[in-house]
Amino acid sequence: MDLDVLAERLAAGDRRALARAITLVESSRADHRGQTAELLARLGTLGRQALRIGLSGTPGVGKSTFIEAFGLQLTGLGLRVAVLAVDPSSARSGGSILGDKTRMELLSRDPNAYIRPSPSQTHLGGVARRTRESVSLCEAAGFDVVLVETVGVGQSETVVAEMTDLFILLLAPAGGDELQGVKRGIMEMADIILVNKADGDLKPVATRTAADYAGALRLLRKRPQDPEGFPKVLTVSAVEGDGIGKAWHEMTALAEWRRAHSHWDGRRAAQARRWFEDEVRQALLARLTDDPALRARMETAGQRVAHGDLSPAAAAQDILSHLTT
Amino acid sequence: MDLDVLAERLAAGDRRALARAITLVESSRADHRGQTAELLARLGTLGRQALRIGLSGTPGVGKSTFIEAFGLQLTGLGLRVAVLAVDPSSARSGGSILGDKTRMELLSRDPNAYIRPSPSQTHLGGVARRTRESVSLCEAAGFDVVLVETVGVGQSETVVAEMTDLFILLLAPAGGDELQGVKRGIMEMADIILVNKADGDLKPVATRTAADYAGALRLLRKRPQDPEGFPKVLTVSAVEGDGIGKAWHEMTALAEWRRAHSHWDGRRAAQARRWFEDEVRQALLARLTDDPALRARMETAGQRVAHGDLSPAAAAQDILSHLTT
């Protein structure tokens, strides 16, 4: 399929064209990178925007159940929803493709939903780049909401927050001591905190946990991008579907306020600029590993350095002098 | 001074030559990078090794007082001690040059000690590279112990642990709850934990804190590079000088065990290799900001991306195409 046809079908909302385009985006082949840039440039002129929602939740917090309930609620409102994932560990654990589809069984069969697992990459930078571009493709394909989920490990929350308009933290009910488990930096990124499992025996604990987090949030300094009352903490029950509608209401209210108070376009512009700079850096570093001759030279020099035959600085100078020619 | 003279004087232990060489190492000028590589290559053939000790401690823990007491103890034993710092924040706070010398007043006047503040760099990668090379210079100048200190913020402990043979964590007496303040990853890097301020009213608390940390360490899995009983927790009083001799004894015992059980050369070789790879990556990325024409092109493209005239991927492709020619 040539790029014209691909772009046209994707813009018409064709799911197979979207899947194909994302596969192109995930490729690291140089010619594919060029085609990706061209495809994104063409689709960018459509000017379509989705609400980009970042969602972080550690394993066991009920993230898949929440996404399924949340996604079905949105498609029930007539909205089209795409779910992407940022999970640099998926390359190691393997099998996330099957995993993502089976853990959200109803949503994956919904014609108004599109679920794409995390690209297989061993480093976060690569996953981040490809996911960002996939978000753009989903927007061009006319999705109303693009949900980017991540398991809360290391830097992945920051990466997701930097490619989304809203950042949601999904937490489990917990004793007061465990509050400390959420790093301050992550708390500061959250726009809305959802305490899941507010059902059955855990309901009172969930309510108390929500109050504790609300107290902790009040200690953080006020951010310009927040209206009164945000960041907000709510309880939800993904299993029973409780509180999901209210959560969606709060997300749209926050998004609308930010659009109306010019905290939207500026953020997107800053994000786009950072992606560009990041892309240049990543691509530059990729040259060190993509070129077989250079990779071999790095290996040889690395061994000489390890044996003490060559200083790290001298070895680096040698490699770099070959890179200028 | 030409490189031959500089290398010769430095190898003879001349402090002014050392200071001059470190200034060369800290320069980012391309010709200085070349001279640095040549200087390090010449000095590397001397094969001199110091005991490289990494020391991390947050502000308020008494780090300067400890380094002064520890350093004076070592010079009292006839050893020559260099103190370097890794502190990426020093560029912002400013004035660390005066600061370092005044906060370790006696040690800074000791002819067998050499104190060098953290190079002024805004990013940790730059500080790391320059500090590593300064460590090599201090070794070539015949120092017996090179102490690399850092204030425990973010990634700086990892950076210091990767350029040293032993990693020491200096902590303050604390209530049981505060133990959690030390991240697990940092605990796992520590070879020896020193609980400072074991004097006066705080002595019982320090003793209890040490027992708590010892308990926490026993929960971590055994590392191959440790003999029985390590990692170890000790109490010290930098103000009164208590426990400093014992701490030094444990450091040398650990270092000797590692040398005898081949956990020394392998670590140094792996470190050297990582430095080399790191140096290549850093230098490659530096080209983006060092070249004025390229910097201007990045700026223009960045603005177009922010305005939405160009996609991040297309802008990156454009920059990268200029980099190949």
Automatic annotation (TrEMBL), chains A, B:
Database matches in Gene3D superfamilies: 1.10.287.130, 1.20.5.170, P-loop containing nucleotide triphosphate hydrolases
Organism superkingdom: Bacteria
InterPro entries, sorted: GTPase_ArgK, P-loop_NTPase
UniProt keywords, alphabetically: Kinase, Transferase
Pfam families tied to this protein: MeaB
Single GO term (MF): kinase activity
GO CC terms: cytoplasm
PANTHER family documented for this protein: METHYLMALONIC ACIDURIA TYPE A PROTEIN, MITOCHONDRIAL, METHYLMALONYL-COA MUTASE
Family label: Belongs to the SIMIBI class G3E GTPase family. ArgK/MeaB subfamily.
Name of this chain's protein: LAO/AO transport system kinase
